[in-house]
Amino acid sequence: MQISEIKEGTVLPAREFTCDNVQLFLYNAVLFNAHRIHFDYPYATEVEGYPNLVLAGPLIGDWLHQCVDAWLGNDGQLLAMEYSNRHAAYVDEVLTGSGEVTSVNAAERTAEIELCIKNAKGDVVAPGKATVRLAGCS
Amino acid sequence: MTAELSPEILSAIGCQSVPRTEVVTRRDIRKYAIATNQTERKYLNGDVAPSMFHLALFWDVVELDKLLPDGVSVDTLLPKFPLTQAMAGGLELKYFQPIHPGDVLTATRTLVDIYMKHGSKGPIIFYEVIMEVKDDQGKDVVWEKTTRLLR
């Protein structure tokens, strides 16, 4: 991927993400995150009132990163990312990550990208923005 | 509900954590890569860490008696707030260099702001924490600002 290959409006490949109980357990174990809403179904549903076990917010942030990372390949570099967790997402929910280039600075070889993770209803679970640097002409 | 940011709460702005140093291992990178469903072999092999790996590396490791009944640990950097229900927050990240096995990284967290807004459903407290991760030469690796909301 080179800077000359992209322009404003270039669309990143969409990717589906689903997290089952096992992956959610592994993720929170890696973090050492013991928040019960991520593994204790009766607590999550009966005490906190969620419909299912809740995905950890940073996992969704990681998926936004992966949307950019996969598109960039080995020639590009992620310089910055910002995102917010707007809606809860749940175990076994199908989420879709997508992105679009909003500006390109050919001189700096950088581009700005708007990203989001949506659920099946179309709710934006996590919007984000990334700044990347791409390879120049060889 | 009424809530106020007292001078005592606001005096916590500027508080800084004790710097924490951790050694990056290939095993930890692999575990993070698998748990986040990475697809690239360089991450799954642990040759280089995925972007948000630093979050796992520096997540608080606390003893069982320091966990609240809901399993959450108390962030000792924060003052006692009059509102406690955590809501969705945001993260800003800047990446300066990749993380590899064997890297020795040090993270320092600073509480940089506390403020309140009044929404239609009542007051909301915002606080911002910056975490700076540097390598053993003192060079920047990751800069992260977390904004959390309490209602």
List keywords for this structure.
A: 138 residues; alpha+beta; 5-stranded antiparallel β-sheet; 33% strand; elongated; B: 151 residues; 15% helix
| Major protein interface | A-B, 37 and 32 residues
CATH architectural designation of chain B: Roll
Which range best describes the helical content of chain B: under 10%, 10-25%, 25-40%, 40-55%, 55-70% or over 70%?
Answer: 10-25%
Number of strands of chain B: 5
Tell me, rounded to a whole number, the average pLDDT of chain B.
94
- The quaternary state of the protein chains shown equals heterodimer
Proportion of residues in β-strands of chain A: 25-35%
State the fourth-level CATH superfamily of chain B.
Hotdog Thioesterase
Structural class of chain A: alpha+beta
User: Uncertain segments of chain A of ≥5 residues (pLDDT<50)?
Assistant: none
Q: For this structure, what is the CATH class of chain B?
A: Alpha Beta
Fraction in beta strands of chain B: 35-45%
* Mass-distribution shape of chain A: elongated
CATH topology-level fold name of chain B: Thiol Ester Dehydrase, Chain A
What does this protein structure show overall?
The complex is a heterodimer of chains A (138) and B (151). With 138 residues, chain A is an alpha+beta fold. Chain A contains three helices and five strands, in the order E-H-H-H-E-E-E-E. The mean pLDDT of chain A is 95. Chain B has a five-stranded antiparallel beta sheet, with no helix packed on it. Chain B has one domain: Thiol Ester Dehydrase, Chain A. Chain B is of the alpha+beta class and 151 residues long. The N and C termini of chain B lie close together (9 Å). The model of chain B has no long low-confidence stretch (mean pLDDT 94). The interface between A and B is medium-sized, with 37 and 32 residues. Strand 2 of chain A pairs antiparallel with strand 2 of chain B, so a sheet runs across the interface.
